[in-house]
Design brief:
The structure holds two protein chains of two kinds.
Chain A lengths: L5 H23 L4 H9 L3 E3 L4 E5 L5 E3 H14 L3 E4 L5 E3 L7 H10 L16 E2 L14 H11 L14 E4 L13 E7 L5 E7 L11 E8 L3 H15 L10 H8 L1 H15 L8 H10 L13 H9 L1 H9 L1 E3 L5 E6 L10 E3 H14 L3 E4 L5 E7 L3 H10 L14 E2 L14 H10 L3 H7 L4 E4 L13 E8 L2 E8 L11 E2 L4 E2 L3 H15 L6 H8 L2 H8 L3 H4 L1
Parallel strand pairs in A: 6-7, 7-8, 16-17, 17-18
Antiparallel strand pairs in A: 1-2, 2-5, 3-14, 4-5, 4-13, 8-9, 9-10, 11-12, 12-15, 14-15, 18-19, 19-20, 19-21
Chain B lengths: L2 E8 L5 E4 L5 E2 L11 H16 L3 E12 L2 E4 L2 H8 L5 H9 L1
Classes of the chains: A alpha+beta, B alpha+beta.
The structure holds iron/sulfur cluster.
Chain lengths: ~550, ~100
């Protein structure tokens, strides 16, 4: 894992002391709220519906067990005993007191963590494949490049006041698990005809009010040019992105207005000045960072592994969990373990301080002290010997963390919604809870199969509803909560935006509507078809017919 | 015109507070003073501006309410939830709070 050098540590420590002084001046009245607000936002501190909220960066979703214990300490000592893992691989605390936040940041700095650039119109925390470095299908570990981008973008003076926030995601595998096509910049590592590894550069994707799938502006970028090329993109955006209307300020609007080809032309023109300059990455520096992501030393273990196969065959509950919650590791005899933060009736992405501590212990015992956060709001122990899986599963079960539902209908992404978020139109969490209760029968969930359900409490789409197989968007109708449903969204390499199925449903009716959609799929599906396959074959028609009957045309 | 109460967030802890009849800030909407006319509202807003200036609260605004048995109930779902707190199951929050 990446260890802070002296420079990183000094930067973070200095920032804590600066913020401590800013809070002191705010509380004493030297700073007004108008003066203080941009300062607190630069340190990830929002004022939400009921309280302040502190968003802590987890760069590319990688945590050590020591860092996880610190997250638990923050939850226990300064919050209400829990934290919320977000769709950007970060963690949020919902109840900090303003005067405590400097102490929270100081505690984070001790383990190389901070809340810098988790808010504001800057380059945000870079997200990456949660199986980076261990996935069997991976070309190279994308975190090396995510870390290089982190260093380049942290407090970058030219890009501290962009037209709007800016999100970069990176995947090192052809199977995209980082949703790179719905980010401001998505980077996909690939090998060209000569066998060299570089990046496909995708720009202008995004969700929110005006969703777009990103466009490829460069099919292959050699690795050493990554930063100069990113700088060229950011310069074009910084100069021409709209600042007059925050709804039109994201890079996707600019790319769409110019057209991808013209945008690419402008980037290339800018890049002509920058390439082979100071931002060209020297191989020695890349190697230095790469060494910090050296894979753990795992002696290969010949498969099959009797202890694992025995448990799978003799214990149906373990067998079910092994089917959904394991992912192929590049070293034979190991697996990456997905830990579901979606128990039936639970709050998607929430973990208590005790659970965080227990997971840190399990990571030490079974997974070289490493933990990952997924953008699907679950956690990962990246490298567990398969012979240990039955033991690990027992212990996860005791912690209430062994739900066998990864990728199934109850593995719901939900933003905080109107229960916490000041911008929300409607609640997300209780909808997720009611849906998971409706589908509580795990056998039924496994029969339904892969189904991604994503809920946002407003059009900002933090819950990624646009790319849910079933997407649910909270809307406000005359002060009451309603929910618009979209079908057919997808976040992976074949990304697509969902289509609105029809008029919105009330808070009470929306769970029935979801069940009707799932039942329709079960009737329509052909052998081997996942929900998304059936939808792609049939379109909206059968779902609309079942949901709205004859009245649809009049009602729509 | 609708009845209104004045709400804000407490500067130090961020919590939701309401302006009471005595000019103090209270956590319970039941104790909030209810404005029934434009003059009342102007009075509340003046007090709120002072409270912002002396670092007691941030972001004050008026909320439409209906008055039932003398108690103000916000009209919009958003404000009802803001008043009563997250609607996620209390057992989870209670567990978490005592953890
Ligand atoms: S989608 Fe809207 S309601 Fe949900 S967290 Fe984002 S801003 Fe808040």
């Amino acid at each position: 894992m990446y260890q802070y050098d002296e420079y990183d540590q000094r930067l973070v420590d200095e920032r804590v002391e600066q913020f401590r002084d800013q809070v002191r001046r705010r509380l004493s009245g030297e700073l007004s709220e108008d003066e203080f607000k941009p300062l607190r936002l630069m340190n990830g501190l929002y004022l939400q519906l009921h309280a302040y909220m502190l968003r802590v960066a987890i760069p590319y979703g990688t945590l050590s067990s020591a860092q996880m214990r610190t997250l638990a300490t923050l939850a226990r000592r300064w919050d209400r005993g829990y934290g919320h893992f977000t769709t950007r691989q970060n963690i949020q605390y919902n109840w900090p007191k303003l005067e405590d936040v400097p102490d929270m940041l100081a505690e984070l700095a001790k383990v190389g963590m901070h809340a810098i650039q988790t808010s504001g119109n800057c380059i945000r925390n870079v997200t990456a494949d949660h199986f980076a470095g261990v996935a069997r299908d991976e070309i190279e570990d994308p975190r090396i490049w995510a870390e290089i981008i982190r260093q380049w973008s942290t407090l970058h003076p030219e890009f501290s006041f962009l037209p709007r926030k800016f999100k970069i995601a990176i995947t090192g595998s052809p199977n995209d698990r980082a949703a790179v096509k719905v980010h401001d910049i998505g980077l996909r590592m690939l090998r060209n005809a000569d066998g060299d590894v570089g990046f496909e550069v995708i720009v202008g994707g995004g969700q929110g009010r005006t969703p777009f799938i990103g466009e490829t502006i460069r099919a292959f970028l050699p690795k050493q040019h990554l930063l100069s090329y990113l700088e060229a993109i950011l310069r074009v955006y910084n100069q021409y992105g709209r600042r007059d209307n925050s709804f039109k300020a994201r890079i996707k609007i600019l790319v769409n207005a110019l057209g991808a080809a013209e945008f690419a032309r402008q980037v290339e023109a800018e890049w002509a000045h920058l390439r082979d300059g100071a931002l060209t990455l020297p191989a020695a520096e890349v190697d230095r960072i790469a060494a910090q992501f050296a894979p753990p030393v795992l002696p290969p273990v010949a498969e099959p592994i009797p202890a694992f196969d025995m448990a799978r065959l003799t214990d149906p509950a373990f067998g079910r969990w092994a089917r959904t919650n394991l992912f192929a590791h590049k070293v034979p005899g190991y697996a990456s373990v997905l830990i579901s933060l979606k128990p039936v009736g639970g709050v998607p992405g929430d973990a208590t301080a005790d659970q965080m501590d227990a997971l840190a212990d399990l990571a030490d015992r079974y997974s070289q002290g490493e933990i990952r956060v997924t953008h699907g709001q679950n956690l990962v122990l990246p490298s567990v010997g398969k012979a240990h899986l039955p033991d690990l599963w027992q212990q996860l079960t005791a912690l209430g963390l062994a739900e066998a539902n990864i990728g199934l209908v109850s593995d719901i992404i939900a933003c905080p919604g109107l229960d916490y978020c000041a911008l929300a139109n409607a609640r997300s969490i209780p909808i997720a809870q009611r849906i998971s209760q409706r589908f509580a029968d795990i056998g039924r969930q496994h029969d339904i199969g892969e189904l991604q359900l994503k809920i946002s409490g407003c059009i900002n789409a933090c819950g990624h509803h646009h790319v849910g197989h079933i997407g649910i968007l909270g809307v406000d109708k005359k002060g009451e909560e309603f929910y618009q449903i979209t079908l057919g969204g997808k976040a992976e390499e074949d990304a697509a935006l969902g289509k609105i199925v029809g008029p919105a449903f009330s808070y009470d009716a929306v769970v029935d509507a979801v069940e009707t959609i799932v039942d329709t799929y079960l009737v329509e599906r052909r052998s081997g078809e996942r929900f998304i396959d059936t939808y792609r074959r049939t379109g909206l028609a059968p779902f609309r017919a079942r949901l709205y009957g004859e009245t649809i045309d009049a009602a729509a | 015109m609708p009845h209104r109460i004045l709400t804000a967030n407490h500067l130090r802890d961020g919590g939701v507070v309401f302006l009471a009849a005595d000019g103090g800030w209270v956590r319970s909407p039941e104790a909030a003073t209810i404005a029934a006319c434009a003059d009342d509202e102007r009075g509340l807003s003046t007090i709120a501006a002072t409270a912002v200036a002396d670092q007691t609260v941030v972001g004050p605004y008026l909320v439409d309410v209906t008055v039932t048995d003398g108690r103000p109930v916000p009209v919009r779902a958003r404000e009802r939830i803001r008043v009563s707190g997250p609607t996620v199951p209390a057992d989870f929050r209670a567990d978490a709070a005592s953890a």
